[in-house]
Design goal:
mainly alpha
């Protein structure tokens, strides 16, 4: 068992280093390529930030400054985050940015859930997108309490404050430099601050992820804790479908139960997964009733279509949605048929425009390497999301 634990610790550390290095290097090379090739100013700024971050990490390793336990700085960052959020909250109550594309869908889906009890999109046809029902359901609860457009802003602002406070509780006593950086990001990064101005699932997903780690941090093997873990895993999947999140339980629970038998560890893991399945089962049943087969999430065609069928390859990876023209074109189809139609249309487009797709791959990779400037753009209302699609 000791040998196994040592191997786990060794692979875990180097595995993290390798993954982080690949993310940083891919992000850096992609931004270098696009800034030189297409003269994008914002990419050049990001390159400077990445280089500064690499230098900062080098200095930390050189000086061995891995531990950090100054509570005053954590409290100062918390206070700064609260002040920033209060300023943005006032702005959102007074002049919240107009929601577009998939952000509008979350609000309209919530409205229909509250008023009609049905999960429809803005076309009035069953679902037809790959959005999970979590955030719209939360909006619906808010609208039943106070049926006014300002409710959307209130919900997102509450999530923003929730992420900040939960993050403070999670990171304040971890006593390492990484915890400080993580909390700094949650507190004052523009991306996190402006997410409250958009009906976006990432902010609410962050909230439930942080709550999950708080439970894991205080986990002692109690039955109710396993129930909470299952509920939080299901909540994450209702908000944003990230099924791989359940795998994080394996190293955490193994670490906690390494002194017990392997069967005890497996039983605890099994209970957590069982509770997650129970809480998530209503959505599985809904999808089965629509598709006639077990599906953990609804449509896949929309996800495949988004960011793939666009004439401007520099937008590949940045656009997320289906144009109204396509929705009208296939309005006579059922949800399943619509899903298949989008998949077929995407494949046909890629076959006919392979050069376009290949040239757009760097921009698609950028999307997965953490570029989320759209939150700031939406807040400042400088981005037009009505992309020209084929």
């Amino acid at each position: 068992m000791n040998r196994l634990l040592k191997l786990y610790h060794s692979l875990g550390r180097w595995g993290n280093i390798i993954i982080l290095s690949l993310l940083i290097l891919s992000g850096l090379f992609n931004r270098l390529y696009t800034s030189v090739k297409y003269d994008f100013i914002d990419y050049r700024i990001e390159i400077i930030i990445i280089v500064l971050a690499l230098y900062f990490v080098y200095r930390i390793f050189k000086k061995g400054k891995f531990e950090f336990s100054n509570q005053k700085i954590f409290k100062f960052i918390l206070l700064t985050g609260i002040i920033f959020r209060m300023v943005i909250a006032v702005h959102d109550f007074y002049d919240r940015p107009v929601q577009e594309s998939d952000y509008e869908k979350h609000e309209l889906l919530g409205q229909r859930l509250a008023t009609e009890g049905e999960f429809y999109d803005f076309t009035g046809v069953e679902l037809r997108n790959f959005r999970q029902p979590g955030l719209p359901a939360i909006f619906a609860v808010g609208l039943t309490i106070y049926n006014h457009p300002v409710t959307y802003a209130i919900v997102m602002i509450l999530f923003s404050f929730g992420v900040l406070i939960a993050g403070y509780y999670l990171f304040r006593d971890l006593k390492n430099i990484a915890a400080l950086f993580a909390f700094l990001y949650l507190s004052i990064s523009p991306n996190m601050l402006f997410m409250a101005s958009n009906s976006n699932t990432q902010l609410s997903f962050f909230f439930f992820v942080i709550l999950l780690f708080i439970v894991l941090k205080n986990y002692t093997g109690k039955f109710y804790q396993l129930l909470l873990i299952g509920a939080l895993l299901a909540a994450e999947m209702y908000i944003r479908f990230n099924f791989l999140m359940i795998l994080i339980l394996i190293p955490f629970l193994y670490e906690k139960h390494r002194d017990q038998s392997i069967s005890f560890f497996i039983s605890r893991l099994g209970y957590a997964y069982l509770f997650c399945l129970i809480f998530y089962s209503p959505w599985i049943i809904r999808n089965y009733n629509v598709y006639g087969k077990v599906r953990l999430m609804p449509t896949t065609g929309t996800g495949l279509y988004s960011s793939n069928v666009t004439k401007d390859f520099t937008k590949l990876g940045g656009y997320n949605g289906v144009p109204d023209s396509i929705l009208k074109k296939y309005s006579h189809l059922s949800e399943v048929e619509f899903d298949d139609a989008l998949k077929n249309e995407t494949l046909e487009f890629v076959k006919k425009n392979p050069g376009n797709y290949v040239k757009g791959m760097p921009f698609k990779i950028i999307k997965f390497s953490g570029r989320q400037n759209w939150t700031t753009s939406y807040f400042l209302m400088i981005q037009n999301t009505d992309q020209e699609n084929c």
